[in-house]
Amino acid sequence: MTRRTTVIAIDGPAASGKSSTAQMVAERLGFLHIDSGSLYRAATAAILRSDHDPSAWTEESVLAAAAPVELRTARTSCYPTLAGKAIEDEIRGHDVTRNVSRVAQMPRIREWVNAKVRAAAESANVVVDGRDMGTVVFPDADLKIFLIADSRERAARRLRQRGTPTSEQLLDDETIRIRERDERDAKQTVPAPDAITIDTTALSQSEQVDQIVALSKDRV
Ligand code: DC
Which H or E element spans position 206? Predict the structure, then answer.
């Protein structure tokens, strides 16, 4: 079936500012923002509640644990719930962040996330963000953006976001963690051939949003 809604896909590596930028673009355009990473995180939070040994996780056990996960809509944003309860703090926590790449490597979990994201885009114009939105999930997206930024700048943004006082040591440690995550997620973090790459290293948040909104007005 052909899609009748508009899709803006924003992909890129960890801490490239995808989700906050996608949320602001969605607000400016009156679209719905879907953060696909939040679903990988929700599946990871669900399995962590029942099994603390990630090496024992299988596609079946993760899928079963994730069955009560739903994507709820609140104005221009979506958030996952587990058994009807919002789990935002849990999915952003350390345990989930450390283990989510393992879950994101599982093909059947990828299909489960993709189906939920596609379903949400059936009834609303959306800004979706993740790693493979423009390649796998919406190869026919109306606009595809790939956001990149220098790893040290991404680390600095992460620390600022957490409100952590920054020292050179903390910045070095966070840069290493970001590069490790880049390696773990490298397979699915590839720009679509028709994506527009924006290097945000020297851009402010509002400059990024302005650029994408301007591109969307040309294309959409
Ligand atoms: O963007 P994030 O840090 O919330 O993503 C969480 C994890 O999910 C990360 O390991 C990358 C993975 N992910 C993915 O493989 N594909 C997506 N479309 C979104 C996220």
Answer: helix 205-219
> Is 121 among the domain residues?
yes
| pLDDT value of position 165 | 81
Residue 183 C-alpha to ligand 1 middle, in angstroms?
A: 12
Per-residue pLDDT tens over the stretch 89-112 = 999 999 999 999 999 999 999 999
State the Cα torsion 146-147-150-153 to the nearest 10°: -170
In-domain check, residue 207: no
211 found inside a domain: no
List, for residues 31-75, the tens digit of each pLDDT value: 999 999 999 999 999 999 999 999 999 999 999 999 999 999 999
203 C-alpha vs ligand 1 centroid, how far in Å?
Answer: 23
Q: Which tokens sit at 22?
A: 């996608």
Ligand 1 pocket member 90 (CB < 6 A): no
For residue 127, the domain's CATH number is: 3.40.50.300
Instruction: Determine if the pTM surpasses 0.90.
Output: yes
| Mutation test residue for ligand 1: of 94, 98, 100, 161, the one with most atoms within 8 Å of CB | 100
Radius of gyration of the chain (CA): 17
Between the CA of 64 and the centroid of ligand 1 the distance, in Å, is 20
Our count of domains for the chain comes to 1
- 15 C-alpha vs ligand 1 centroid, how far in Å? 10
49 within domain boundaries: yes
Range of the domain at 91: 7-200
pLDDT for 58 equals 98
